[in-house]
Amino acid sequence: MSLLRALCLGFCFGFLFLEANGQASDSVPDSGRHLTLEAFIEQASRRDSVFQEILIDELTLQYQRTLALPPRDLVLSVRGEFGLSLDGTPRPDLTASLERLFPLQGASMALQFESVSRSAADRNNELSLVFGMELARNAFGRSTQMLDKLTGMETEIARHQIVEAYEDYLASLIVSYYRWTAAWESVKAAQSAVEEGEKLLTNIQSKQRSHIAYQVDVDKARFQLLGKQESRVSAQDEYDGLTLHIARAVGGNPDGLRPDSVGLHRDGNIDVQREREAFFESGRTESILRLLQDRDSLALERAADNLLPSLQAYGGLGLGDSEPTVAENTRAFVGLSLGYSFQKSREKATVEVTKLTSQKQRLAAGNARSRLVADLESLFQTIEAQKVAIGLSEQRLILAQSISDAESRDYIYGRADINDLIQALNTLQETRFSKIRQEIELDILLVEWRRLTDQLVSRREAFERSLPAVISPE
What we know:
By secondary structure, the chain is an alpha+beta fold. The chain is built from 12 helices and 8 strands. It has a 6-stranded antiparallel β-sheet with strand order 2-3-4-5-7-8. A two-stranded parallel ribbon has the order 1-6. A hairpin with a 5-residue loop joins β4 and β5. The chain is elongated, with a radius of gyration of 40 Å. It starts with a helix and ends with a helix.
């Protein structure tokens, strides 16, 4: 009779344990303020000051052309001179000019007035209009036009690099979000494991009171429970730390903040050929490489232009007052102004250095493209391998759950000892953790793929999200 009673008690406690074991994964309430990935990106883009710091560089680019090019100034020059002849006669002179510069055309126009004392009774005044044009170095503004193009290229490169920096930081935040999600799932899995351990300990203690289980079985169950509690504390600590970082990025309170449990790995199909072709045809990285090569070629051409002599043609019309008639006082003139330096060591060195820099950039661009091809191919293979690993983990999890249920039943009826049951429960817990890590790792790999192929964010998206906060900070 006592044997029948023991079997009945064991069956009842075992049934309760199996029910708890089958539903343990849903035992942690997923309450709190949920933060989806989309909401996280939107809020962080507007509130994280790192994004604003990156985009401030964009606001300075509008001034680069003005800073780099010679100014289109209207220049007023006045020169006054007071002299004395040997007989003590004062001879004041005055020269004034108003000059307008046209740097992109290599031209200038000046209105000049000159008053010169030849003697105490003889003063010559002349008003003239003079046009000038560069004919050799910077001929017709050629060098300045190249400088204008160089400035535009450097500005465009800087714009691409700003978006690259924005994208890199955005990718790091998304990875943080996924790790935060993984930490939350680990907390739930660890809590489920603790509850399973508590149910097992309660079951075995009940069996011990009914003289079915031994004290060593209770100790083993308690030892296992302590290990699961330790894992829960570690998982909770990691989750709390990541929550603080997530809350800082969105400028919110970390209390009760919860991630959305849905990842992006369900949309992980990649058309490698199409995306790689688009990347190397119109991606930001390829645009930067092309601009760098074009910039160095143009810089070499401009450096060679600086080896030419300075030759300026000028002409104009002058009106004086020294003669009795207007016709005699009016003169037209043309001329050439030549300046040549016989020692051009610095200019020649600049040309040679620019040649080497251009050659180096061509090699660097080719090497960068080769590295990118290899990196993309390797990353794609890793993504596909991770998908396979997740599929295997799903099968392992089903089997681990089945084995755990079977070991639990066998233990109830005395067909397995406590060691087999504990091993099955530990394997189930490890398989759950492994599947969580693999899914999050796949999400992170997909983020890296999108970052490498310049698909994570566009310049327009970056500015629509974050630039208003830069212009009008809260």
